[in-house]
Amino acid sequence: MSHIEFLAAFNALDFGIIWNYRDLFIRGVWLTLRLTLLGFSLGLILGIFLGLGRLSKRKWIYYPCKIYIDFIRGTPLLVQILIIHTALIPSIFGQSLGFFVSGALALTLNSGAYIAEIVRAGIQSLDKGQTEAARSLGMPKGMAMRYIILPQAIRRMVPPLGNELIALLKDSSLVTVIAANDILYAAKIVQGATFKQWEPYLTAALLYLLLTWLASKLIAFIEKRFSTSYVPKKRRTTFADQLKR
Amino acid sequence: MIKIKGLKKSFGDLEVLKGIDLEIKEREVVCIIGASGSGKSTLLRCINLLEEPTDGEVYIEDVKVNDPKTDINKIRTDVGMVFQQFNLFPHMTVLDNITIAPRKVKKVDEKEAEALAYELLAKVGLTDKAHNYPEQLSGGQMQRVAIARALAMKPKVMLFDEPTSALDPEMVKEVLDVMKQLAQEGMTMVVVTHEMGFAREVADRVIFIDGGYLVEEGTPEEIFNNPKNERTKAFLGKVL
Ligand SMILES: Nc1ncnc2c1ncn2[C@@H]1O[C@H](COP(=O)(O)OP(=O)(O)O)[C@@H](O)[C@H]1O
Ligand SMILES: [Mg+2]
Question: Does A143 sit within 8 Å of B83, measured CB to CB?
Fold first, then answer.
């Protein structure tokens, strides 16, 4: 296709057709959002436990967590989705439980492993003096984790968790292979029905772009609230400021 | 009060403590001196089990600390510790730093914990900083808060690991003054320090550690004016 032909094809784009299929795309957005947010929330819970397990000194906790995390991070999400949908769930329940359960489970199990590494890194980045101070005051491990370590570590986890959310949002398009009617699936259907290539897939791309843009705004807002200083804004005078007075 | 018998501690192949015997009586102030890397911190940290001894026994009031059956968290509430790097909790106000452990560990109610915190802040001269965050304080102020935080558990003994080594020179005195006052009130204290003036003035006993052994101990006069061991003499020659 020459340069001129390309521009001509571009000029001939007819997004009016897409409007006829808007319901399909709206349902697609809705499913993509639900799958991503559910997968991320459950993944967060799973990730906290896996991440803590990965830091455990007890071998029977450490190794299962480590093997799980390495397995998930070392294999493609697409393969994981297919294993879960076509093998794991049917062999446990004797039948498919539908694309939503499979998709949500796959995204949960996948993001859990990535979030575990974020949790572990966040905790390990803290000075070990914090744990020692807490323990020296008589706090048991769990209490020190809850009141001293996690509140500090969580701040450091916000930026990488934001990246993980956006990555998951985009990767959720892989559930299309198990016929989950997400955004990409809507584009495929429209493509099949209209024999147009550009319009449906460009629409899908723009919808993903819109969602990731919204997510990045939300993350920026949260990051701002968790800025580097622990002092609430209205009381933010440093020792140096006090000296000046 | 504290009894240490044949204490050994290795990190991998490196034997840091090679058999330490030491007894510390109630209300006694013991200063530990020695070159950097000689194992002073390790000795101190074996007392509240921040380090697990490789061999030997540590008793606090006749309870064996390094016994798997001992509830170490219970022991630690009786043993306050002050670190070189302060280790205040940066996400909490000064007041919360001091009240968190009494409230969560000892289940003291909030009002009572805060009343005690204000009492301790008055003692270390920082009442007006109760609602500040650690990052808003100077090093000397942070270390005084750290002392108050440890005292809030009403410990029977206080361990200090080079509490003034990370401070700018002009802030050393304010921290040492608080420790002096504590000593005068009869607190049992074990202090690792390079402040020989403080050791001379406040210590009941000075202990010199070198190469993993307790080389010499005695009153400040004995150690500083009349050291017997050659290694003690060499060390003091360098620092005094
Ligand atoms: N957690 C550790 N792992 C390995 N080596 C350590 C550890 N803590 C201390 N050491 C080593 O033990 C020796 C004594 O350390 P330390 O007790 O901190 O000495 P001091 O407090 O007298 O300067 C040093 O050589 C130090 O490198
Ligand atoms: Mg030391």
Answer: no
Considering the domain boundaries, does residue A11 fall inside one?
yes
**So what's the pLDDT on residue A245?**
44
- Whole-number pLDDT of residue A145: 94
pLDDT at A45 over 60: yes
Number of domains in chain A: 1
- Closest-CA distance, A63 to chain B, in angstroms, reads 23
Ligand 1 atom 3: residue of nearest CA: B11
Which residues of A are less than 8 Å from B104 in CB distance?
139, 143, 147
Q: Which residue of A has its CA nearest to B99?
A: A137
Residue A234 lies in a domain: no
Sheet holding B79-82, edge to edge: B79-82, B157-161, B188-192, B29-33, B205-210, B213-218
- From the list A130, A139, A152, the residue facing B101 with the nearest CB is A139
Q: Which atom of ligand 1 is nearest to the CA of B35?
A: 22
Name the residue of B15, B41, B162 whose CB sits within 8 Å of the most ligand 1 atoms, as the mutation to test its pocket.
B41
Helix (H, G, I), strand (E, B) or coil at B3: strand
Point out the ligand 1 atom lying closest to the alpha carbon of residue B45. Answer: 17
Predicted pLDDT at B160: 98
The domain that contains A181 carries what CATH number? 1.10.3720.10
The Cα–Cα gap between A231 and B122 comes to 23
How far apart are the CA of A234 and the nearest CA of chain B, in angstroms? Answer: 12
CB atoms A152 and B90 under 8 Å: yes
Determine the distance in angstroms separating the CA of A216 from the nearest CA of chain B, rounded to an integer: 26
The closest-lying atom of ligand 1 relative to the alpha carbon of residue B12 is 4
Does residue A92 lie within any of the structural domains? yes
Tens-digit pLDDT profile for chain B (240 aa)?
A: 999 999 999 999 999 999 999 999 999 999 999 999 999 999 999 999 999 999 999 999 999 999 999 999 999 999 999 999 999 999 999 999 999 999 999 999 999 999 999 999 999 999 999 999 999 999 999 999 999 999 999 999 999 999 999 999 999 999 999 999 999 999 999 999 999 999 999 999 999 999 999 999 999 999 999 999 999 999 999 987
Nearest CA among B192, B190, B144 for reference residue B165: B192
How far is B51 from B9, CA to CA, in rounded Å? 8
Which domain, by its residues, includes A162?
3-228
> Could you give the 3-state DSSP secondary structure of residue B207?
strand
Give ipTM to 2 decimals.
Answer: 0.94
At residue B167's C-alpha, the angle toward residues B163 and B170, to 5°, is 120
Which chain B residue has its CA at the smallest distance from A154's CA?
A: B91
Q: Is residue A242 pLDDT above 60, yes or no?
A: no
* Residue A65 located in a structural domain: yes
Give the dihedral of Cα atoms B41, B45, B46, B48; nearest 10 deg: 160
